[in-house]
Task: structure prediction
Amino acid sequence: MNKVQIIGTGHYVPEKIVTNDDLTKIIDTSDEWISTRTGIKERRISEGENTSDLATKAALKAIEDAKISPEDVDFIVVATYTPDAFIPNTACIVQANIGAVNATCFDVSAACTGFIYGLDIATQFIKTGRAKCILVIGAETQSKVVNWEDRGTCVLFADGAGAAVVTSGEKEGILACYSGSDGTKGWTLTVDGVPVRNPFVKGNPGPMYDLSNSTIKMDGKEIFKFAVGIMIKSVDELLKISGLSIEDIKYVIPHQANYRIIESTAKRLGVDIGKFFINIDKYGNTSAASVAIALDELCKSGNLEKGDKVLMVGFGGGLTYGGVIIEW
Result:
């Protein structure tokens, strides 16, 4: 089996910064209400860039960081639940944008766990020799599916993209992958799609579909309960697979959904919150881009030394969950 490593990372977020105070102008909320419940102070919101635009810019940064050319990429995997279109997939649009003419392209829909799923998929392709170089991207433009009149969700979700170049190499850089799903809880976080409406539907199919119905709906209490428990389970499984202890981990990169979730997870694991890399205050919840953006910021921070181990863990709509341990 081939060894797998991450050789480059990158991220991109829209220029528009929307602070909590900015949101008070469009909904009944306050900076104090948002900050104390979520840890978010500001987020980035697209002023017209779509998911493929964000993904393309993050991809080019990762490719530059990896010191490869787009032609070296065998596969492009884009994790997103907010694609530009049903067809073509976002990965194919990115391929055209960056000139990765040799890549096979597909999207992964696992919401906030998407980037982790993408890394897991890339790892298996490279281990088996099916590919040598894979570009994994997590990208979302959630501002187009947010209900801006629902203060329970519109304060949380934001736009952005992160990317990683995964290759075969001389050292083993991916030490463990773990993933899972619980479809019985899928109702707790949803964005409606297009309903079945055709001449053969019995009865009255109703009016033409209103796209304004396709907005985020979430049961926050249920998500919170699920998130803390499944984050702990995922960390335990990753440590078991890798044969490591939590003391061996330099940093934990959690999905940046809510500071309270991260804090509760750290307490129940008996781990100092300082081990957790947190940037939710700047970016909010960027779903599939969340862990990817944090990974790039950590890699560029200068705080990692050769041999350091980083555990990435997340959860998302579906419901989905999982994690990856890498060695720097």
